[in-house]
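User: Predict the complex with BV8.
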Amino acid sequence: MKKLLEKLKTKENLEKIVVLTGSGISAESGISTFRDNDGLWNNYNIEDVATYSGFAKDPEMVWKFYDQRRQEIQNTKPNKGHYALFDLETHLQKKNKEFLLFTQNVDGLHYMAGNRNIYELHGNLWDAFCINCKKKRRLNDVPLRVLPPKCESCKNLMRPDVVWFGEQLPSSVLDKGFESMDCDILMVIGTSLLVYPVAYFPFLALKNKSLIIEINTEKTHASDYFSFVKGKAGEVLPEIINNLKEIL
Ligand code: BV8
Ligand code: ZN
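Assistant: Here is the predicted structure with BV8 placed in the model:
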């Protein structure tokens, strides 16, 4: 942390701060990550629950998986790591500087913490859309009364509004992500950087000479290229952001 704070002091005219988060930022809110020991992918087979073919084979089972996660998330709230990012966005807005938050998370906790300039790269499990007419719907009932939910207009099957493996990310968020990697600072928080194409983002920022601050409870395959801060997001983010606010 000390080395990072020294480095920050040398930085001037910082105008654009970008953040990329993964499930690790929600861990202290009590939401399971994917690849930690107690992670989701240890208890479920990705093929069965996070691909279109798994959904087509057994929509009810996939809906149970997502409804189970919505029930887990419903009783949680943002943690200090989320609120530190809200604090940063508020501060940068007052200074007329740019702040963009890209998240791989589908839990909606960044919105709950008050952030607004959010790009949900992998969708949001509070929304669903019809596989036939694409009509979208916000899912407010937790748990869902009818599983799997049907489209109110054409009575066809609804699916969770998330990006499954093998599905393209919406070009609106993906293109915005790629173009935003030309920034002064990129903060990479709580992600194993194992899912593509999002895992390319920090390397693009590196090419653009951004300062990359990685916050994680353990080193990832890319940490040696970044300013790595070992720690829980909820514990180290507030201190880093307080120091950032002094120079922004
Ligand atoms: C696509 C959505 C192609 C729903 C998810 C190269 C290019 C393009 C694609 C690929 C490629 N190589 C391989 C692929 C295919 C695939 C892929 O990346 N596979 C991987 C596994 C190798 N990619 C895709 O399929 C993507 N689609 O590119 O389509 C295409 C092109 C043209 C036409 C058609 C298709 C789609 C990927 C999106 C998949 N959907 N989820 C849902 O959530 O259920 S991915 C899933 O992984 C989640 O979204 C999750 O957010 C994401 C990343 O995981 P992390 O967030 O990083 O979580 P993880 O548990 O791994 O790590 C947590 C980290 O936090 C750890 O490092 C831990 O140490 C740390 N931590 C823990 N506690 C804390 C902490 N840190 C700080 N504080 C703490 N307290
Ligand atoms: Zn429909």
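DSSP finds ten helices and nine strands in the chain.
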